[in-house]
Amino acid sequence: ITHVIRYEEQPWEWTRQGRLKWYTHPHIDSSARRVWLYLQEIPPGSRSGKHRHMAEEQIFIINGNGYDVHDGERWNWEQGDLICIPGMTEHQHFNSGSDPVRLLCAFPATYLNLGVGGFEQMEDAPEFNG
Question: Rounded mean pLDDT of 113-126?
Fold first, then answer.
């Protein structure tokens, strides 16, 4: 079991949430499986999927600027900010800049591991054609 997840070894993938690169989740063979940690990249003028989940989520803005909508309320953010999303909050991320946005997203896997809550997807990212 690895203790180091290498950036270049993790593939980018298109999901209903948009373009993601996973670092940890319960199905990745690493020494830490109790948290989901991934990068998300949002193209200029685009947005993530709209969803909610049982666990709270923290998102660090690596680069770019934009805003979130949490249960209908808008929250502006920029590089270096931390977005804090309470559990069961319907949310979506928007890139309002001219460069791609990169987000580092993390939330505990506890609810999923216990079988008491996953994702509820309301809207797919526009680039997803699954």
Answer: 82
How far apart CA 85 and CA 57 sit, in angstroms, is: 5
Q: How far apart are CA 104 and CA 21, in angstroms?
A: 10
* 8 Å CB contact between 26 and 45: no
29-69 pLDDT, tens digit each: 888 878 889 999 999 999 999 999 988 999 999 999 999 99
CA–CA dist 97, 85 (Å, integer): 22
Sheet holding 65-70, edge to edge: 73-78, 65-70, 91-95, 50-53, 119-123
Q: What is the pTM of this model?
A: 0.92
Closest CA to 99 of 49, 61, 65: 65
CA separation for the pair 100, 105 (Å, rounded): 16
SS (H, E, C) the chain: CECCCCHHHCCEEEECCEEEEEEECCCCCECCCCEEEEEEEECCCCECCEEEECCCEEEEEEECEEEEEECCEEEEEECCCEEEECCCCCEEEEECCCCCEEEEEEEECHHHHHCCCCEEEEECCCCCCC
